[in-house]
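hiii, so i know i said id send this last week but things got crazy w the move. better late than never?? heres the sequnce for the chain we talked about at the cafe, plus the structure i predicted for it. fair warning i was half asleep when i ran it
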Amino acid sequence: MTGQNIVETEELTKKYGAQTAVNRLTLQIEEGEIFGFLGPNGAGKTTTILMLLGLTEPTSGKAAVIGFDPTREPFKVKEKVGYLPENVGFYDDMDARQNLRYIARLNRIPGEVTEKRIDYWLEMVGLSEEGSKKVGTYSKGMRQRLGIAEVLIKEPKLIFLDEPTIGLDPDGTNRMLDLIHSLSREKKMTLFLSSHLLDQVQRICDRVGIMINGKLVAMGPIEELAKKKLGLDQEDYTLEEIYMKYFKEA
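okay and structure toks below
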């Protein structure tokens, strides 16, 4: 981590009629860190991500992503940011390499660079041998791994990951978590990870934020939250214990 913030929000709020989906959210995410974004369904996590990507406008408040306002400069944000939704869409009648070439063209990546990146990222996600197979034949886990490769083809500075290990077997999950860790530590990318799998979040995240009913009720390193909420000084705790404590008190 560099100590510089790559994401900043101030009083960021999103309302749908009388319902407040995100309520005065203020957070900072440091460049190069793995940030876990936690909360039950309907807590406002996806709405927050959509605002940070410039895909929906906030009702009030401010946000800066890589120095750009995602509401006023959404295309500049999209040039530098990747997003992996929970359900990834592809052209099923095309193979993996064709899908990745298409994404590369959309991002104006030169052809010679594209082919090197396709080879590299397919190898990194464990799909080198399946790169010429039509994506329509892929399992859920294979599609998820291809989704990671698709995000990485433009080598973004910041990646939003929504349940990235869903559908993966234990070996695939371990490879994915190792890849996320290496992207942060070796490639200096910033990872914003939304997941319900708290043991995985605890394993790789530098800090976490907990959203409940649209409000950020906690943010910080897991060990600090454990000390604050559970009174524990040693690693004799789980993130699930911390999460449930905040959830019950909300």
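btw The two ends are 31 Å apart (CA to CA). thought thatd interest u
miss u guys!!
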